UniProtKB/TrEMBL annotation:
Protein name: Adaptor protein, phosphotyrosine interacting with PH domain and leucine zipper 1
Domain of life: Eukaryota
One example GO MF annotation: protein kinase B binding
Organism this protein belongs to: Ursus americanus
PANTHER family tied to this protein: ADAPTOR PROTEIN, PHOSPHOTYROSINE INTERACTION, PH DOMAIN AND LEUCINE ZIPPER-CONTAINING 2, DCC-INTERACTING PROTEIN 13-ALPHA
GO CC annotations on file: endosome membrane
All copies of domain BAR, residue ranges: 7-232
Underlying gene: APPL1
Single GO BP term: insulin receptor signaling pathway
Amino acid sequence: MPGIDKLPIEETLEDSPQTRSLLGVFEEDATAISNYMNQLYQAMHRIYDAQNELSAATHLTSKLLKEYEKQRFPLGGDDEVMSSTLQQFSKVIDELSSCHAVLSTQLADAMMFPITQFKERDLKEILTLKEVFQIASNDHDAAIYRYSRLSKKRENDKVKYEVTEDVYTSRKKQHQTMMHYFCALNTLQYKKKIALLEPLLGYMQAQISFFKMGSENLNEQLEEFLTNIGTNFMYVYNRHIIVIIHKFIIFTII
C-alpha cells in the first residue's frame, strides 16, 4: 500500500477492522521478505561453500605438486627440470591458496554473518511474535465467549467476577502482544534494506580485497615465475622433440 510505511501502534487498543486489515498487509509483506531473503541466503551460502571448496582444492593441488619429486614412476626416471618446474608451480599456487583462504574468511564475516543474523534473529522474531499474538487473540476471544454465555437470570457474583477478570486480563495481554508485534513489523521495514545491502557490500569488499591482495603480492612473483616456467617448458619440449626425431631416424634406417 503506497504511502503507508508503518503500523499505527496507537490503534492497537481499539483493534478496529481497519487496523486488522492493515496488519494483514504488513504480514503479507513480511512473508514476502522472508521468502526472498531465504533464497538470497541460499545463493550466498553457495558462493561461500564454493569459495571454501576452491580454497581447499587449490591447497591440495599445491601439496600434490610439492610431493612430485618424492614419487617413483617406473618409466619416468629422475627429471630435475620437471621437478624444479613443479616446485615453482607449487609455490605460486600455495600463495594463491592463501589468498583464497583469506577471501573465505572475509566472506564468512562480511557476507554470511549479517544475512544469517537477519534470518535467524529478526525473521524468526516476527514468526514468534505472530504465534504469541495469535494465542493471545484466541484466549481473548474465548474469554469474550464465556462472558457472553453468562446467564442473566442466574447471576453468580463470584462467577461473573472471575469471567470479567478473565476478559480484562486476556484483553490486556492481547494489547501488549499486539504492540510488540506491530513494533517488530515496523522495524522490519527499515531493517530489510540494511539486511539486503550489508551482505552485498561485504561480498564486493571481500572480492576487491582479494584481487588487490593478488595484484600486490603476486605481480612480480608471477612475472618471474612465468619467465622461468617458459624457459623450462621449452627445454622439456625440445628434449621431447629430439627424442621423437631420434626414434624416427632409427625407425627409418631399420
